[in-house]
Amino acid sequence: xxxxLAAGWLAVVVGEEGAGKTLLLRDLERQLRAGGLKVxxxxxxxxxxxxxxxTVRLVDDADMLDDxxxxxxxxxxxxxxxxxxxQSAGRAMGLPVRTALARLLPLTPEEVGEFVSATLTVAGRxxxxxxxxAVAALASFSEGLPGSLSxxxxxxxxxxxxxxAPQVGARHVVLAAQALRSGGGAENITEEDAAPRAFAVPRPxxxxxxxPALLALPVLLVLALLGWSLSGGRPPASGEERPAVAAxxxxxPVAPPREPPVATAPAAPVRPVPVRPAPAPDAALxxxxxxxxxxxxxxxxxxxxxxxxxxxxxxxxxxxSTFNVTLARGGGLRLTVTRSGPADAVMVxxxxxxxxxxxxxxxxxxxRDGQLTASGTLMMGQxxxxxxxxGTISGDRxxxxxxxxxxxxxxxxxxxxxxxxxxxxD
Length: 426
Known about the structure:
Layout: H1 2-6, E1 10-14, H2 21-34, E2 38-42, E3 55-59, H3 67-74, E4 80-84, H4 89-93, E5 99-103, H5 109-122, H6 132-142, H7 146-163, H8 170-182, H9 191-194, H10 211-230, E6 316-324, E7 329-339, E8 345-353, E9 358-366, E10 371-380, E11 383-394, E12 397-406, E13 415-425
Parallel strand pairs: 1-4, 1-5, 2-3, 3-4
Antiparallel strand pairs: 6-7, 6-13, 7-8, 8-9, 9-10, 10-11, 11-12, 12-13
């Protein structure tokens, strides 16, 4: 994979929801910036923004792009890394460029233990807060997915804390897993209790096979980008030997060589700018102040300037707590807002965990002043709910409310609940 990236190939990272794709891209961004490279990390709404040939483009949730957008992104040149779900791997690998694929595998039971121990140590908690049987239960119920594992750890610790237990046992994990899957079992949790505790997904340093690769990647990419710049943005000749991808990478068909860039016309000659004649010798002039340039001769200040436009609200990923007022039940919530088209259209990926579980995607609008509205169908537990979301993005905060409407049996009235959320930019 590293050799493929250094050669300028398209890299595709494939993993299930919660496998750690976003975490990997963020860690990769930090590594590349530390190596002095320009990096653009964003979602599908940012993928169409132009970047320079010396910028590494990291695109999360690239499976949300249509085929035309994926093809355009692949042919744009430069170094690009896409993160997709398994069902979109075929589309990415079918692009007409050389492509390398890497799959994020679930954590083994041993790695789950390392995951929990490392996270507790970073949070300043005892490394043996979870019993051995509890760790085994975490590995079983989370299926080795870091995102699910983190949510299950938070819910298990919350149960143990409410009971006053000195250690999280297997019973706490089993009950938390049942609650997460059903959406129930979190009665009488206050909004304060629902706030997520300090159990963030640790950086993937524990994956020993990945750490050396991330450390070496900035150097290889520097060489790749320097080579790209020196070649004038042209790909290597078709007869040039390409490196083979290490085990775990798969190559897509090779695209025909792209046409060399069209030569640009010589710059137009610079025309002299007329200036006013110097004032008469007897005119009183103040000598120019040192360090300040004199204004142009034809400069005239305007009577008034237009007020600057307020800065537009930025989409992104927000994480925090949610509280269902109707059910008096709380939990964690993660909303990922990405632009999905022209004007103010956005997509909102909804992920509730830790007491209230639900997932899905909503479509809506984000105005320039931060007003967010979105609607669609979510799966809450095993039941579909029509969902209406309203919120406000202000700086790094997203607050608002959400209404869940469950369809009833024929002839009966549909039931609904309402909740609030308070999130911070992730």
